[in-house]
Amino acid sequence: MSATVITITSGKGGVGKTTATANLGVGLAMLGQRVVTIDADIGLRNLDVVMGLENRIVYDLVDVVEGHCRLRQALIRDKRLVELYLLPAAQTRDKTAVSPGQMVRLCNQLRPDFDFILVDSPAGIEQGYHNAVAPADQVIIITTPEVSAVRDADRIVGLVEAEEKRSPTLIINRLNPDMVRRGQMLSTEDVVEVLALSLLGIVPEDKHIIVSTNRGTPVALDGRTAAGQAFRNIAGRLLGQDIPLMPLRSSSGVLDRLSRLIRGS
Amino acid sequence: MGFLDRLLGRREPTSREIAKERLQLVLVHDRVRMSPALLDKMKDELITVISRYVEIDADDVEVTFSQSKRQSRLVADIPVVGPAHRPTPRRATTKARAGSNG
Residue A14 belongs to what domain range? Predict the structure, then answer.
């Protein structure tokens, strides 16, 4: 068996690449998959804090590439899931410390021992992006329903196609069903139509994301949250499971108001 | 058409509709890497060339990019108002073509 390498990218910064990488890693590991997440954002590492593993870093990706340690030594095992690992980015170097060829070789070294390798791409379309996409078997583009994010996502689609990779799939993040209904936000259908990509999943806007990032516990660990459930569903789809899109509940729905009342938030 | 409705003052477009419209327009030009200004320049040149062969209504020419999935298509809608011109520099070939168009 050899791992599938999936790169999560977006073009625009701040749309949820790192959060998605962490949560898909968690979701896949919860489904019994052996997963390693790689932070390819060298110089601006963050996947470690989102996964809550920042205190365990000894070596990083650049140390591996430069031969300062063995690959196994740099992998950090997750606190909660035994089959989930993180390969952190270097914090004191920049994107030029690694080449696309080195990323391909690194992933090839990891392939025999894992089922999924998830690469968290940096924002932008420069070398960091190329490093992240070079080893990918599949590319996931994540966007929010905003004009700027969708435009940048479209640029990435063009770049991925130019590399003769198979067509990327799409995650729409931070969708607010109430705003869509009021005509204040691009809908799923709008974004899918404009980008002409196949939709992998929708993640509703959810305050739990901030709270879970505060704590370093990815939201997918808790299936009761809307975003957590959405990420779990996407993980299932990556395994080929046929999971329908979640019905997007309005946050002002009776059920939600009731549950908020009970939880007192 | 939504655009017509708006012209007739039926209702204000929502910001969602505005976003989609703006996005589609900006992506058309991003994808072919041709700015609206360059497209205008090309349109002017097209009008010049085509006018050598056939009389057209230059004010009513529409040259746009259409999108189907991610495939771009250059669409020119050019109203012909008169018959083909006969006297052109390269007579033999242009005459035959202009004849078939007019």
Answer: 4-263
Nearest-angstrom CA–CA distance, A206 and A47: 19
Q: Which residues pair with B64 in a beta bridge?
A: B75
Asked if B30 and A154 come within 8 Å (Cβ–Cβ), the reply is: yes
Longest dimension (CA), chain A: 57
CB-CB contact of A29 with A84 (8 Å): yes
Of A157, A183, A194, the CB nearest to B15: A183
Say how many domains are in chain A.
1
| Interaxial angle between packed helices A17-30 and A226-238, expressed in degrees from 0 to 180 and rounded to the nearest 10 | 70
Q: What pTM does this model have?
A: 0.84
- pLDDT tens digits, residue range A89-142? 999 888 889 999 999 999 999 999 999 999 999 999 999 999 999 999 999 999
Q: How far is A115 from A160, CA to CA, in rounded Å?
A: 23
CATH code, domain carrying A250: 3.40.50.300
The 8-class DSSP code of residue A88 comes to P
ipTM value > 0.95 = no
**Cα-to-chain-centroid distance, residue A195:** 19
Residues of B in contact with A147 (CB under 8 A): 19, 22-23, 26
What one-character-per-residue DSSP string does A195-208 give? HT-EEEEEEE--TH
DSSP-assigned states of every residue in B64-75: EEEEETTEEEEE
